[in-house]
Amino acid sequence: xxxxxxxxxxxxxxxxxxxxxxxxxxxxxxxxxxxxxxxxxxxxxxxxxxxxxxxxxxxxxxxxxxxxxxxxxxxxxxxxxxxxxxxxxxxxxxxxxxxxxxxxxxxxxxxxxxxxxxxxxxxxxxxxxxxxxxxxxxxxx
Length: 141
Prior knowledge:
This protein is α+β, with helices and mostly antiparallel strands. Helices cover about 20% and strands about 40% of the residues. Strand 6 (about 70-80) and strand 7 form a beta hairpin.
């Protein structure tokens, strides 16, 4: 389950992860997670001493090979996930938008098997449900 709120300064300080909706023209970039076998938005955990904006651009580059431009915050996310010992863990994150001016060729890695640009209303069937919701809300902005 994910809750979406407008971004704010307090959200940036509490964020543990960052995601990015990167667009080239009218299409949204998705990466294929090799381990989970799903398409998803590029993103990951914020490193110690790293700002959420830096994480978003770094993850976009690491996961897709693409350079992001015009990064801007879209939303503060609260993600609930079950704990192995029971109960729920709530993780805070930030969703950003960026543009990809000139897409570059992608070389598969052990983490990401493919990269694709998709129309927001023609997403692959095996996309992460949370990411599908985020693209539906913000993929046309």
